[in-house]
Amino acid sequence: MLREVIWTILVMLFYVDLVMFIFLLLKKGVMKYIRNKKRQIRKTYENEFLRFITQGGDKLSIEPGSYLEKKVLQALIIDYNSFISGSNQTLLLEKIGKESMINKVERYLKSTNRWKNKTGTYLAGEYDLKKLEPLLLKQLYTSDNELFFITARSLIKINNKTYLKEILRKSAEQSWMSKNNTLSLLELIEGDIEEILLEIMETEDMFLQVIALEESGKRHYQKSVGWIEKMSQSPEKELRIAALKASDRLGNTGESSYLARLMSLKNDPEWEVRAFLAKFLKKVNSDQAVNILMEFMRDENWYVRHNAAESLFYLDEKGHAALKALLHAEDPFASDAARAVLQREALYKETTG
């Protein structure tokens, strides 16, 4: 009796193994067939696809009919995404169906594979997949610096300024983004963000104040003048530099108190502050500006002298006269800096002649 039971079990196991073997063999064969079929479709599609994304135009002769053909076109879109312009993206999404792309990107977003997760996050922004916004919002709480940046970028691409304050707040809390990365995100935002920047300026966070100040100057917001005046007198070097960077973008507003506050930084103990003041003064065509720049030509720091010489060069006759006078200065630093700029001008005139 026991022997029969054992034989029955062994026979059943044999049949189970046989069925599994046949299943795996069939699966392997089917997968090989699908891979070969995909390879053939890709070979057929790729040249036309590359022509379309590189040469432009509003027509694409590829017409995917089957599920497999759409998957191949989808793979091409993901592989060559960085070379696809906005108008072409729209046409390609119509070919494969936006819902199909959403499903693919959603799987990437939910993947435990970091590379796929970051790729999906990036694609969600590139293809304006608003349906995936809730998943992106959850990712703002990630501990991965790079993923946070890509997530913030995609949220801005999809919703413009909607989540800007939240992105900046999280960035400041965790120190997840450099100043340059943060400013690069702000460049993506279209429209007016003056009120948001002014609100950020009211915070006590120096990182956010620097961001808001520089961006306000870059966007030529006139309300930033008051903040530039105030922050130019800050005890924090970073805020004084940010004020000068903002003023360099904003230019000479002609307001006397504004110029007076900035020019008061000529004796600042930090060479970076003096260097940025020297750069700004090329936009102030006045005797006082020329005098400060001539003082800077004798500065102990090379970068300050370099910026001063460049700014004098931009001040036309007044500046050029000052540079020529400095050729005979007793200070070798000043004469060398003046000579370098004037020689460059002479060389330019000779070559363009």
TrEMBL record:
Protein name according to UniProt: HEAT repeat-containing protein
For the keyword Chloroplast, the answer is: no
Query: According to the lineage, what is the superkingdom?
Result: Bacteria
Q: Does the keyword Ribosomal protein apply?
A: no
Q: Which Gene3D superfamilies match?
A: Leucine-rich Repeat Variant
Q: Kindly state which keywords UniProt assigns to this record, in alphabetical order.
A: Membrane, Transmembrane, Transmembrane helix
Q: Which residues cross the membrane?
A: 6-26
GO MF, any single term:
deoxyhypusine monooxygenase activity
